């Protein structure tokens, strides 16, 4: 049997607070649109996540903390008892396979539509998304969001805290606050989406305030050891543009440094970029790095990018599409087996088993190969 010391570091056990992980691999949160219309997780989701339970840690797809935060059709939520019960079926299935899960909590802000949520979206400022948005009736022009009042900001902070408590009740080991990818928290960071003149807009110290208040409230609700935060420094997505990335993120990391969070999760982390190096220097806690990989990476690509980030100070490596297409990704990386390519991108969001729970695993492929062998006379 292979000694763990002979394995690449990616495949060796790791610790994340009180959690003992069997490897350094994290399944990144990925929107898959398989929930019921009201945000309740469905049985097929339990199958999907249980299939991938060999990941060191699974961070489940974004769940909204309130109704107005819904982004797209059939995404998950975590703000009522039905949501909690649905997610508990998922966490039970993953735990039965030996896995561990956090739940990402995400508010869409201006990325929402009345046709989807039944509510008018809210945002830091009344600046619409500069592109169409997918709704139950297809792609629609965006609506101008309503600027959040101070009272609505406070109630949204409270909703994140309540969602975190619900997630723990649903069996999750912790939660990840989604502060990235152009959603509500990220909209507060960027000047092109936040043009407020109050204590939440203007200078960097004001624009990071909502992030800090949300994270602190979630920590108070469930404990710092159960809370992670996802950031995407410099990522231009969903119309968010940053012209002061090198100022925002060091200030934000410093403002959260005393909380002793479970982890910080960096999207498309590049060990050669100064912002990654600065965050790693300032952040004393665990750091999860999500590398930018080719569309259909090989095991060699994953080992190369993952080991580079670990050498640069990352503690764990988060992978999205490789886990989507390969339920047994950990085993494939262990034996350097070929990876399944991701099926047509639209299958990620259309519901059903196809492109979701039907990806083959090595054991099935081997059985098919053996069955196809001619029988000796």
Structure described in brief:
The protein has 377 residues and is an alpha/beta fold. The chain has helices spanning 43-51, 81-96, 114-117, 150-169, 184-189, 204-207, 209-222, 245-256, 274-282, 299-311, 321-325, 329-335, 362-372; strands at residues 14-16, 19-21, 25-27, 57-64, 76-77, 101-105, 122-123, 133-135, 138-140, 146-147, 174-178, 227-231, 263-269, 287-291, 316-319. Helix 8 links the parallel strand 12 and strand 13.
Topology, pairings included?
Elements: E1 14-16, E2 19-21, E3 25-27, H1 43-51, E4 57-64, E5 76-77, H2 81-96, E6 101-105, H3 114-117, E7 122-123, E8 133-135, E9 138-140, E10 146-147, H4 150-169, E11 174-178, H5 184-189, H6 204-207, H7 209-222, E12 227-231, H8 245-256, E13 263-269, H9 274-282, E14 287-291, H10 299-311, E15 316-319, H11 321-325, H12 329-335, H13 362-372
Parallel strand pairs: 3-4, 3-15, 4-5, 4-6, 6-11, 7-10, 11-12, 12-13, 13-14, 14-15
Antiparallel strand pairs: 1-2, 8-9
Description:
It holds the Pfam family Oxidored_FMN. Its cofactor is FMN. This is N-ethylmaleimide reductase. It comes from Streptoalloteichus hindustanus. The protein has 377 residues and is of the alpha/beta class. The chain has one domain: TIM Barrel (Alpha-Beta Barrel), CATH 3.20.20.70. The chain is 34% helix and 16% strand. The strands form four sheets. An eight-stranded parallel β-barrel has the order 3-4-6-11-12-13-14-15, surrounded by four helices. Helix 10 links the parallel strand 14 and strand 15.
